[in-house]
Write a structure and sequence with these properties.
152 residues; alpha+beta; 5-stranded antiparallel sheet; 3-stranded antiparallel sheet; 31% helix; 22% strand
Amino acid sequence: MSETPDLVADTPVSRCRFYRQCGLAAGVEPEHGRIVVRADRVGAITMPARLGQEVKALMQVRRSGLGPIISHPRSRRWTYLVRPDLPDEVRLFAELFRLDVSIARGGAQIALPSPADRPPCFRVWVEPPRDTFRPSGAIVVAAIRVCARRRR
């Protein structure tokens, strides 16, 4: 798994500054050093790591831009940071729920990897942010559907 570029004195504040340069309006929770961004101009889709790996491989084959992907090693889940362009529909949430996939709704807090996280790491980058690009949430959901059909 790759990580953000090494900084001489990587702290939650310096990492947060880096995230902001990548278009993530991140803030630090001082009591824990946790870095969070609110779901509004960025969305998040969280799924089991195995499905996340399949989605990533499919998106790479299709030459879809990946954007940032976070791994949660302890819970074995991946979170794709996306453009928040998915409809707020019960049918969509129910369909994805059956696949153990969740969408962060507007206003939700999305935790980002922080240098304050200590082993065992809570969050690490699979694909770190490099710029402001985020794939469409609809493209990630379409890839999830293809991968789910292949499993059946």
